[in-house]
Automatic annotation (TrEMBL):
Organism, as annotated: Nonomuraea typhae
Transmembrane segments: 16-34, 54-74, 117-132, 139-157, 197-220, 241-261, 273-293, 314-333, 339-360
Domain of life the protein comes from: Bacteria
UniProt KW keywords: Membrane, Transmembrane, Transmembrane helix
Domain DUF418, chain residue ranges per copy: 222-377
Name of the protein in its database record: DUF418 domain-containing protein
């Protein structure tokens, strides 16, 4: 049975969503570079009461990794179509390549790297590749439901003994030491990375792993149904998605931000609510983007260049943030106000968009994508980078 390949325009729209998600991930991650103590203390998701930080916590944190994870599952179905019977060996090699890349980045650049988690969950997705879209959605919903109930149960248990749920204040000495290491010499930053990466990696695996798997499954279900490639099927739902996303998801995001300033049961309840309310707001973001791209194709093209080289841009973000905030470069960690940090994020994103447009006009793949493709296909005569 043959299938019709999606049109180029629609592929660009899918890439535009990836490029858009990269911008949000950059804004979410840059806070940890700008305030190195956050990575060392891990006492709370509260980035501070500065208005800029409050906006970022509300509109960005946990929202864009939802989109990025969804797109990983969606992209997997496109790879399945392309690889055919070779999907199993190629996906195994791709996951291994992602894992090795994630370890390398985690040690050298960004302790919050998620590529190792994606590689491990990619193996589960591979094992579940033949399930029906409806089944994938049901399993994803069950995962989110169970995680939400677990957070609520933990909140109830904490309410029985409030002292047990109170988070210890971050040790100022630990924060100062982290800032000194991160902004010192390249060697001191590397020592910080090696010492902190295993702890934060475990936090990410257990904290984000179940939700990421649910989103992988949602993405796989959408990809099998070619949801983003056939917008006409759900165009009539756009107003409803926007009303629910902004009308329910946005107040939920405000509630989540408010609860991060509180210890104990309230913070856990906020996390439980955010498990599913963040999905509504993230969906509204994507639909809004697609509507903008439909009316302003130039924006879509700019984002699509970056999205087509998503892995290269993800690594590129880490490199540029390191050069600005760590001992690899200017060592500005802990020295900039939140509004200035947002300005740095905007500058980095702009640079990456321009570099992506320049590179992709003359190459079929981003540099990291080309390496992963060569490793995945394991060909004695790989396609040239150009």
């Amino acid at each position: 049975m043959t299938t019709t390949a999606p049109t180029l325009r629609r592929i660009h729209e899918i890439d535009a969503v990836r490029g858009f998600a990269l911008g949000g991930i950059l804004v979410a991650n840059i806070g940890f570079y700008a305030e190195p103590g956050l990575s060392a203390a891990l006492t709370s998701m509260d980035f501070g009461r500065d208005p800029v930080n409050l906006v970022i916590q509300t509109l960005v944190l946990t929202k864009f990794y939802v989109i990025f994870s969804f797109m990983f599952g969606y992209s997997f179905t496109m790879q399945m179509r392309s690889w055919g019977e070779k999907v199993k060996p190629r996906m195994l090699r791709r996951c291994l390549g992602l894992f090795l890349l994630g370890i390398t980045q985690g040690v050298l650049l960004w302790i919050g790297d998620i590529l190792t988690l994606y590689a491990a969950l990619g193996l589960l997705l591979l094992a579940m590749r033949n399930i029906r879209p409806r089944t994938a959605v049901k399993i994803g919903c069950w995962i989110i439901g169970v995680m939400t109930v677990l957070w609520l149960v933990l909140a109830w248990l904490t309410s029985l003994d409030p002292a047990a749920g109170a988070m210890a204040a971050a040790d100022p000495a630990v924060i100062a030491r982290a800032e000194e290491q991160v902004t010192g010499s390249p060697l001191s930053f590397l020592q910080f990375q090696v010492a902190t990466y295993p702890m934060l990696a475990a936090f990410i695996w257990f904290g984000q792993g179940p939700m990421a798997m649910a989103l992988f499954l949602f993405g796989m279900a959408a990809g099998k149904s070619r949801l983003l490639e056939d917008r006409e099927r759900w165009a009539h739902l756009v107003p409803r998605i926007l009303v629910i996303g902004y009308g329910v998801g946005l107040p939920g995001a405000v509630f989540f931000t408010w609860t991060t300033a509180h210890d104990g049961p309230l913070q856990l309840i906020g996390t439980a609510a955010n498990n599913f309310l963040s999905l509504a707001l993230s969906a509204a973001y994507v639909v809004t983007l697609l509507e903008v791209v439909k009316r302003l194709p130039a924006i879509g093209r700019s984002l699509a260049w970056a999205g087509k080289a998503a892995a290269s841009n993800y690594i590129g973000q880490s490199i540029l943030m390191c050069l600005v905030f760590t001992g690899y470069g200017l060592g500005l960690g802990g020295k900039l106000e939140p509004i200035a940090v947002v300005g740095v994020a905007a500058a980095i994103y702009t640079v990456l968009l321009l570099l992506s447009a320049w590179w992709m006009r003359n190459h079929a793949h981003g540099p990291v994508e080309w390496g992963l493709r060569r490793f995945t296909q394991y060909s004695a005569n790989p396609q040239p980078l150009r």
